[in-house]
C-alpha cells in the first residue's frame, strides 16, 4: 500500500494547476461561462501543446500515457479551478468510449486527433425522458441500404454546440448502438440550454442523419455494454473534478473564515462555524480517499459497479453539502456572481446530473449488494 | 383551542381569492414571484408596482394600520389571511421593505408629521423602499456600521457604503442606518433616516446574484445632504429602533402557502412525466420527498397561525423566538423544496429560464436564491442563537478578545 | 381562532399532572417497566376514581365528556411523565373502536365498565408479517354454526397480558371483521415480548377460540373501515403522548444544560449546544401546534388522512430527534438507566411503531396528496 | 497511489480468516460483540477472555510491539488487516483499555521495569484493564478531575470517585488519572497510575445502561494505598501522558468491517422477509437506506487505511484529525445503522433479546448503545472542535467567565 502520489504525478498536478491559475483565473471562468462557446479555443490548443490530452491515451494511438491517475489528476485540477472546457466530453466520455470499443482505425484516427487537440467530441445518450439508463435509449437508427438513418432528439448533450463529431447512442434492430456522426451534418440542429452550470448542455435534434456502417463504434447492438464500461471510468473522472471543486471550496471557506471578522473576532472562531467546517473537511477527505481507491481499482481492472456508484452518489451529496455550507459561511458575499464560492455551488448541482444522479446510483448499489 | 375562521374572515378570504385570481392574469409569462420575480427584471417590477397600486386601492397594504395614516385597523387574523392568500397566488405588490419594515418602524418611532407625510404613499402603493443596513464589514454584526451622517445645521451629510441593498435599483426611498456621532462605537450613536434615493451623491451599483440576476445593489453615499426632518426617532437612538424593526422583518407568513402551491405544481408535473417508461409520481423515493415537503408546509402554516396569535396578544418574547423559528423553517424549506424538485426532475432540474424547463426553470433559480434566504434578514445561525437566548433563556457567553 | 386552552382544560391538565407527579415519580416508572404487569392496578383504580376514563366518553355510556381535547390533554401529561398504563389500549384503541362501531348494548356495557376503571382491553391487529395495514389482516375467522372460530397469531398486541377483553381483527368470508374476545379464553396464550419500550407488547396465539355472532364489533367485513376511522383519533392521541414526552425531554435538557458546568461555564452556553436546543425547541413547538390543530380537526369532524399521517410521521421523526439530542447534551449520564432522559429516548423509538411508522404514514400522505 | 496488499499481507489475512472462522464457533449463542457483548454478561466476558488468551498465544495482541515486551514488531498495515478481519467476525479478545490505550501509554511513558512487568501479561491476554478517567464533574472537561492520590512515603493514598468505568466489574487493573498535588488546578499536578483493582478500599458499583445492561460502573476509592512503583511517568506530568493516550483511544479501525457484516446480515433478513406480501428487499426506500449504509462503510474503511498510512509515517497532526474523523464517522454510522435497521424491521425493530427478535435483537440494543458511542471517548462535539483546531487551524476562542 502506498497512499501518496508519485513524483511524476505530483509534477503533472503542479503543471496543470499552474497553467490554469495563470491562464484562466476565476474572472475568466465567469467570462467563459457567459460566452456562447463556453470554452476558450486558444486555451484548448495550449492544453494540447502541453500534452494533457496525450497523457490520456496510449502511445499506439497518439498519446504517451495510459495511467488512469493522470486523467484523475487533470480532472481534479480542472475541478479546483472550475475550468470550463470540453475536456471531459472529448477525452473522457468519447475518448474512453473509442478506446473501449473503437476499431483500430477509429482509435488511431480519432484518438490521435484528440491527443493533438484537433478534435472536439460530444456524447449523446440521454433523451427527452431524461433516463440515465443506457438501456432506455429509444431513438431509432433505421437501416436503409448501407446506411443507418437517425431521427429523433437527444437531450443534455454537453458540448454538442462546439463539437466536431458526436457519438450518438441509438436503437437499431440489434439494440442500442453507438454511431459516429459529423456534428456539422445538415440534419443536425443544436440548441444550447440555459442551465445552472452554464456549461454547454445542449438539445440536439436529428433529422434523417445518415451514418455509414463503418461509423459504428463497436458492434451493432452492443451500445449498452460499451457505455456501461466507459461509465465506470467516466464516473470516476467526473468525481475527480467534483472532489477538486470540493477541496477548493473547503479551502477558500476556511481561509475566508479566518480573515472575516464580526463581533470583533474571526467568524471561524465560532463553534457552529467550526463544526460546519469540520464536517466539510470530513466530507472532502473521505470523498478524496475513496476517489483514489476507486481510481486505483479502475486502473487495476478491479472496478465494481458498487464502488463507482457509491463514489458518485456520495460525492454528489457531499459536494453539494460542502458548497452549501461554504456559501453560508461566506454570508451574503458568497451568493454573488463575483465571488468564487458560487461557481462551485452551481457546479455541485450541475455535476449531480452527469452520468446518473444520487438516486440512480443508490439503486445501483442496492442491486450490486445483491438486493 | 379553536382554529376556525369566522364568517367574516371566510368571506374576506373568498374576496381575496377572487381578486388575486383575476389580477394574476396580468402577470408577465412565467412570473417567478419572490424577490427575484420583482427585482430581476423590468416586467416583473412593473407588475409588482401595478399590483401594489391595486392593493393600495383596496386598502390592503395598510390593512392593519390606524385609519389616520391610510389604514383600516384590520385584525391580525385578517392580515394573516391576506398574507396566506397572497402567498398562495404568488402575488407581488407588498413592498417587503417599505410595508414590511419601515412602516412599522414609523408607527413606533416617528413624529406625527413624519407619519402623516410618509405612511400614506406607502399605503397607496406609490412609494417603494429599500433597506440601508448592511455594509461590507457589518453583516451579521450590524451594530458595527460605519456610514457617517454628520449633522450640519438642518441637514446631515452622509458618506459611506451600503451593500446587499435588495431592489435598490427600483426603489424611491431607503431607510438608512448611519452613525451620527463619529466617535461612537457599536449600538451607540446610530440613527435612522428616510432617504430620497434621487438625492445627489447617491450611486446605486448592481451586485449580481450567483445566477447572474440583478437583485442586490451596492449603494454609495458621497456628501449626500439629507434634510434633518427625515431623521426618524431620536438622534443616536437608531439602534433600539432598528432592533425592533428586525423583529418586523422576521415573520415570513405566506411563504408556506406559496411553497405549498409549488409542491402541488410539482405533483402535477410528476403525474404527467414518465422516465424510463415509469411515472415519476409512482416512484416511492419521489413520493417520500413530496410527503416531507407537504409535512413541512403544514407545520410551517400552523406555526404561522401561532405567531399571529402571539402578535394579537402583544406577547413580545414569544413573538421573537417564534418569528425566528418561522424564518428558519421557511428558508430551510425553500432549500429542501428546490433540492427535491431539482432531484425529482432529473436532468431537467438543472434548467433555468428556458422554453423546455419544467415549471419555468424556477426551481433551478430557487436552488440558488434559497442560499441567500438562509443568510439575509439575520443569518440562520443568528436566528438559532436568538431562539436559544430568548426562547430558552440559555446564557450568552462573552469572548475574550 | 383561539389558540389557548380553556379554563376547564387547564384544570384537567393540572390535575392529571399533579396526580402523576405525586403518584408515579420516575423511579416508580422504572419499577413498573421492570414489573411483569407493566402497570399499577392501584393507580389504575385511582385514575378511574378521578374520572379520567369518564372524561373520555359521552354521558350516555357512563362518561361525562365528549371533547377529544380531554383525551389529548390526558395523553400529553401521560407522555410527560412517561407513565406506563393500559390507558391508550383501553380507552383509545378499544374505547374509540367501540364508540365508532359497537352496538348500543356493547357501548353501554363495555364503555361503562371502562369508564368505571373495571375493564382493561387490548386491540389485536398486526400479525406475524408486521404489516400496519388493516387490510393485510389475514388471520382466519371461520364460521362454524353460530360461532366464529379464530386460529392464528397476533403480534405486537400491547397490554394483552393484562387485558380482560381483546378486540381481534380477523378475516371472515366477508372480509376483515372485529371480534370481542375474552382474554382469559383457554384457547388464547399470550407472551410478553422483550422490547425497547418495556411496554407490555405481546404475542397472542389463538387456538380454536370461539366467538358468538353477538360479539362482533360492527358489521361482518367492516373491520378495515372501522379501524381506519378509529386510527384517525388514536394516532392523534398517541402523538399527544409523544409531544408531551418531547416537551419534558426538551425542558429537562435545557435545565440540565444551564446547571451542568464544564470548562468553567454552563454547557448550555456553548453555541453548538444552543443550536441543538434551538432546533429541539422548533421541533417541539411545531409538533405541538400541529397536534392541536389536527386534534381540533378531529373534534370538528374535519380530520383528513393527510393531516393525521403528517402528524404521526413528523412527530415520530422529531420526538426521536429531540430525545437523541437530549441524551447527547446530557452526556454520559443521559445514557444510564437511572437518569430520566433515557426513558424518553426509548419511548420515542417504541412509539414510532404504534399505528404505523414514518415510512407508512409518509406513503399515506403521498396518496392523500393525489399521487 | 497503490491500495494493494503484498503477498505476505494477503496470506496473513487468509490465516486470520481461518482462525476467526474456527474460533467464533465457540461464541455463546447470539453473541452481540462490541462492549455490550463482552461486559453485559458472564458468558460474553468469558468468551472475551478465552479469545484474548488464544490471540495472546498467536502473538496478535502485541503484534506491533517491540519484541522485548512480548510483541512481534508487525507493521501498521498488518495491524490494520488484523483489526479489519477481527471486526468482520465481530470477535472479542482485544481489551480496548489495556491493549488499546494503556499499553501504548506504557510504551511511551513508563520505565523499563514497568514495561517489562506490565506489558507481557497484557500481550498474553491474561490481564484486563479499565479506564479511570471520568468523574461526575469531569467529563468532557477531563482536566478538572478531583480524585486525589497523595504521596505517603513509598505509597500514594487515593480518595475519590470515578465514573463511566466500562467493564470495571470484569477488570483486574485500572489506569487511573488522579491529582497528586492537592493545590494544583486543571492539567497541572495530575499523575497516571497502574491500579490493582483488588486493593482494599476500592468499591465497584454498577451503573446500568438505559437498556438495563451492566456495562458501566462507578468506582469509589477510600484510602486506597497504591505502591509508588505503579506511578507511570513523572509525578505531576500525567496530563501530557493522558492527552497522548486520548489519541490512541480514537482510531476505531475494524468498526466499519463489523458494521458492513451487519449490513449484509440485514440484507439477508430483508430478502427472506415479506410484509404485506412484498419482500422487504424490494422496497425502494429500504434499498436506499441499505445503499447509504454501504456507502458509509466504504468511506469509513478507506479513511481507516488513510489513518494507518499517517500512522506508518508518524504524521502526528494528520493522525489527530483523521482519528477524530473516524470516531465521528463510525459512531454516527452506528446510529444510522441501528436507526435504519430498526425502521426496516418494522415493529420487530423494537425487540431486544427475544427468541422472535430478528438479528438477535441486537439492533434495538445498538439503537440505545450507539448513544453512548457518540459521547464516550471524547464527545462528538469535542471531536469536531479538534478537527477544526488541529485539522483546519481555526482559532480557539476563549470565554470570559
Question: Into which percentage range does the β-strand content of chain B fall?
Answer: 5-15%
Shape annotation of chain B: globular
Number of separate structural domains of chain A = 3
Nearest-angstrom radius of gyration of chain A? Answer: 21 Å
- At the first level of CATH, what is the class of the largest domain in chain B? Mainly Alpha
List the secondary-structure elements of chain A in sequence, H or E.
Answer: HHHHHHEEEEEEEEHEEHHHH
Q: Can you characterise this structure?
A:
The complex is a heterotetramer, with two copies of chain A (371 residues) and two copies of chain B (401 residues). Chain A has helices spanning 7-23, 26-34, 41-49, 68-80, 87-101, 104-115, 223-259, 271-299, 305-330, 341-352, 358-368; strands at residues 121-124, 141-144, 147-158, 165-172, 175-182, 188-192, 201-212, 216-217, 261-262, 265-266. With 371 residues, chain A is of the alpha+beta class. In chain A, the strands form three sheets. In chain A, strands 1-4-5-8 form a four-stranded mixed sheet, with helices on one face. A four-stranded antiparallel sheet of chain A has the order 2-3-7-6, with no helix packed on it. A two-stranded antiparallel ribbon of chain A has the order 9-10. In chain A, helix 1 (7-23) runs parallel beside helix 4, helix 5 packs antiparallel against helix 6 and helix 8 runs antiparallel to helix 9. Chain B is an alpha+beta fold and 401 residues long. Chain B contains twelve helices and eleven strands. Chain B has helices spanning 7-23, 34-39, 42-58, 76-89, 98-109, 112-123, 238-249, 255-271, 284-312, 316-344, 362-373, 380-391, and strands at residues 129-132, 148-152, 155-162, 173-179, 190-196, 202-207, 216-227, 231-232, 274-275, 278-279, 399-400. Chain B has a four-stranded mixed sheet. In chain B, strands 2-3-7-6 form a four-stranded antiparallel sheet, with no helix packed on it. In chain B, strands 9-10 form a two-stranded antiparallel ribbon. In chain B, helix 10 runs antiparallel to helix 12 (380-391). The mean pLDDT of chain B is 93. The interface between A and D is large, with 49 and 49 residues.
Amino acid at each position: 500500500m502506498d497512499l501518496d502520489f508519485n513524483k511524476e504525478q505530483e509534477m503533472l498536478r503542479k503543471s496543470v494547476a499552474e497553467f490554469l491559475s495563470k491562464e484562466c483565473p476565476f474572472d475568466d471562468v465567469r467570462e467563459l461561462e457567459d460566452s456562447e462557446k463556453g470554452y476558450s479555443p486558444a486555451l484548448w490548443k495550449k492544453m494540447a501543446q502541453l500534452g494533457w490530452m496525450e497523457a490520456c491515451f496510449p502511445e499506439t494511438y497518439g498519446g504517451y500515457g495510459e495511467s488512469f491517475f493522470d486523467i484523475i489528476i487533470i480532472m481534479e485540477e480542472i475541478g479546483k479551478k472550475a475550468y470550463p472546457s470540453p475536456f471531459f466530453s472529448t477525452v473522457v466520455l468519447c475518448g474512453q468510449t473509442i478506446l473501449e470499443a473503437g476499431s483500430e482505425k477509429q482509435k488511431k484516427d480519432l484518438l490521435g486527433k484528440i491527443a493533438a487537440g484537433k478534435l472536439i467530441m460530444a456524447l449523446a445518450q440521454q433523451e427527452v425522458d431524461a433516463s440515465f439508463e443506457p438501456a432506455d435509449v429509444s431513438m431509432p437508427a433505421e437501416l436503409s441500404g448501407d446506411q443507418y438513418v437517425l431521427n429523433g432528439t437527444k437531450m443534455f448533450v454537453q458540448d454538442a454546440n462546439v463539437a466536431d463529431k458526436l457519438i450518438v447512442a441509438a436503437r437499431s434492430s440489434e439494440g442500442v448502438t453507438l454511431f459516429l456522426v459529423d456534428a456539422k451534418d445538415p440534419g443536425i440542429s443544436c440548441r444550447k440550454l440555459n442551465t445552472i452550470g452554464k456549461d454547454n448542455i445542449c438539445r440536439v435534434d436529428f433529422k434523417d442523419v445518415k451514418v455509414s456502417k463503418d461509423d459504428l463504434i463497436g458492434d451493432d447492438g452492443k451500445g449498452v455494454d460499451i457505455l456501461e464500461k466507459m461509465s465506470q471510468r467516466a464516473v470516476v473522472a467526473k468525481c475527480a473534478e467534483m472532489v477538486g471543486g470540493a477541496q477548493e471550496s473547503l479551502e477558500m471557506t476556511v481561509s475566508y473564515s479566518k480573515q472575516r471578522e464580526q463581533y470583533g473576532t474571526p467568524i471561524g472562531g465560532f463553534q457552529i462555524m467550526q463544526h460546519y467546517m469540520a464536517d466539510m473537511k470530513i466530507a472532502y477527505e473521505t470523498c478524496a480517499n475513496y476517489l483514489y481507491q476507486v481510481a486505483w481499482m479502475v486502473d487495476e481492472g478491479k472496478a465494481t459497479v458498487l464502488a463507482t456508484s457509491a463514489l458518485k452518489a456520495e460525492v454528489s451529496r457531499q459536494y453539494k453539502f460542502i458548497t452549501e455550507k461554504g456559501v453560508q459561511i461566506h454570508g451574503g458575499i458568497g451568493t454573488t456572481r463575483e465571488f468564487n464560492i458560487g461557481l462551485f455551488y452551481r457546479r455541485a448541482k450541475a455535476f449531480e446530473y452527469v452520468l446518473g444522479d444520487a438516486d440512480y446510483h443508490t439503486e445501483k448499489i442496492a442491486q450490486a449488494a445483491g438486493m | 383551542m379553536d382554529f376556525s375562521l369566522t364568517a367574516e374572515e371566510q368571506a374576506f378570504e373568498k374576496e381575496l381569492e377572487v381578486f388575486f385570481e383575476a389580477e394574476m392574469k396580468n402577470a408577465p409569462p412565467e412570473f417567478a414571484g419572490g424577490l427575484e420575480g420583482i427585482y430581476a427584471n423590468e416586467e416583473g417590477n412593473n407588475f409588482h408596482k401595478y399590483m401594489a397600486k391595486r392593493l393600495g386601492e383596496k386598502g390592503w397594504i395598510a390593512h392593519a394600520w390606524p385609519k389616520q395614516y391610510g389604514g383600516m385597523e384590520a385584525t391580525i387574523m385578517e392580515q394573516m389571511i391576506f398574507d396566506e392568500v397572497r402567498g398562495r397566488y404568488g402575488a407581488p405588490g407588498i413592498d417587503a421593505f417599505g410595508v414590511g419594515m419601515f412602516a412599522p418602524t414609523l408607527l413606533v418611532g416617528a413624529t406625527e408629521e413624519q407619519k402623516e407625510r410618509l405612511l400614506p404613499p406607502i399605503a397607496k402603493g406609490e412609494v417603494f423602499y429599500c433597506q440601508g443596513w448592511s455594509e461590507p464589514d457589518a453583516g451579521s454584526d450590524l451594530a458595527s456600521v460605519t456610514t457617517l451622517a454628520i449633522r450640519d445645521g438642518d441637514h446631515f451629510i452622509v458618506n459611506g457604503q451600503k451593500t446587499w441593498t435588495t431592489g435598490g435599483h427600483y426603489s424611491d426611498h431607503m431607510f438608512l442606518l448611519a452613525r451620527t456621532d463619529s466617535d461612537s462605537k457599536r449600538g451607540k450613536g446610530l440613527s435612522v433616516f428616510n432617504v430620497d434615493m434621487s438625492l445627489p451623491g447617491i450611486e446605486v451599483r448592481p451586485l449580481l446574484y450567483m445566477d447572474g440576476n440583478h437583485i442586490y445593489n451596492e449603494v454609495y453615499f458621497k456628501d449626500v445632504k439629507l434634510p434633518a426632518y427625515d431623521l426618524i426617532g431620536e438622534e443616536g437612538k437608531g439602534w433600539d429602533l432598528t432592533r425592533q424593526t428586525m423583529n418586523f422583518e422576521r415573520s415570513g407568513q405566506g411563504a408556506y402557502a406559496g411553497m405549498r402551491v409549488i409542491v402541488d405544481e410539482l405533483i402535477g408535473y410528476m403525474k404527467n412525466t414518465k422516465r424510463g417508461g415509469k411515472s415519476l409520481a409512482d416512484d416511492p423515493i419521489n413520493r417520500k420527498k413530496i410527503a416531507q415537503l407537504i409535512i413541512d408546509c403544514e407545520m410551517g402554516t400552523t406555526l404561522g397561525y401561532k405567531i399571529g396569535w402571539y402578535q394579537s396578544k402583544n406577547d413580545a418574547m414569544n413573538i421573537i423566538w417564534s418569528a425566528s423559528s418561522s424564518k428558519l423553517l421557511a428558508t430551510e424549506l425553500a432549500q429542501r423544496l428546490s433540492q427535491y424538485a431539482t432531484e425529482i426532475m432529473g436532468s431537467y432540474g438543472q434548467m433555468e429560464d428556458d422554453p423546455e424547463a419544467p415549471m419555468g426553470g424556477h426551481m433551478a433559480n430557487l436552488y440558488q436564491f434559497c442560499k441567500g434566504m438562509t443568510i439575509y434578514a439575520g443569518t440562520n445561525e443568528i436566528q438559532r442563537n436568538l431562539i436559544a437566548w430568548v426562547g430558552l433563556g440559555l446564557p450568552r457567553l462573552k469572548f475574550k478578545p
